């Protein structure tokens, strides 16, 4: 169960959205607060307290990104990557990740590394991906460390080095735990993956389920999907197809197509 989609949930977006109501965010955004615009975009992106509207989210992320709020540039890149609220365009997604990375945003570097690794919007280049994952990891991004660990584990762009991979997984574990404790949903999701796969920590499906639950409760679509996988297979939780279908449905409602696909497969 590996993360195959760009990270969406951002620290500032999640925290601000919790602390301020819709009206306050709208007022602050109209008054030039780019963080508020990004947080408001996140509400429309996720459908939290408002009707889900990707086009509205796109407009708000664009405004905030134009105002040099780099977290919004990342979210805008995700919409271009997924074709939500705008025509799918991997090249623009890469440009936005590049902008965030150049501005010192470690998550932007991790996402750009992912695009280079898989040749999405840029020419596939494992060495470039490694450099970006390293920059991201050095900057404290758990997903950058996670992906760099995978690169060493499987010898992608670097000489295979299992000991180095373990060290990076352990660093990813520390960073994602701190992020999760601070309320960053992506940290909970990444930490859940580490426990699910036994990378840097002893494999623990129950712990993974708890972390995916926390992520899902905060509207993290991938957390919901992975929780569905655990319930469908009885990993760390009692096997229950009805509950699995419920979580796949939530992931689907949040915009994850593979969640929609899994609903049809469960009897």
Could you give a quick summary of the protein structure above?
It is built from 15 helices and no strands. It is an all-alpha fold and 267 residues long. It is globular, with a radius of gyration of 18 Å.
Account of the 3D structure:
- By secondary structure, the chain is mainly alpha-helical.
- Among the domains are: 1-88, Serine Threonine Protein Phosphatase 5, Tetratricopeptide repeat, CATH 1.25.40; 204-267, Serine Threonine Protein Phosphatase 5, Tetratricopeptide repeat (Alpha Horseshoe).
- 71% of the residues lie in helices and 0% in strands.
- The protein contains 15 helices and no strands.
- It has helices spanning 11-19, 22-30, 34-46, 54-66, 70-82, 90-102, 106-118, 126-138, 142-154, 162-181, 185-197, 205-217, 221-233, 241-253, 257-265.
- Helix 2 (22-30) packs across helix 3 and helix 5 (70-82) packs antiparallel against helix 6.
Shape: globular
Report the mean per-residue pLDDT as an integer: 89
Distance N to C terminus: 22 Å
CATH topology of the domain at 1-88, anyone?
A: Serine Threonine Protein Phosphatase 5, Tetratricopeptide repeat
Total count of strands = 0
Helix percentage: over 70%
CATH architecture of the domain at 1-88: Alpha Horseshoe
CATH superfamily of the domain at 1-88, by name, is Tetratricopeptide repeat domain
User: For the report, how would you describe the main beta sheet?
Assistant: none
Family: Belongs to the hcp beta-lactamase family.
Pfam families: Sel1
Protein name: beta-lactamase
GO molecular function, one term: beta-lactamase activity
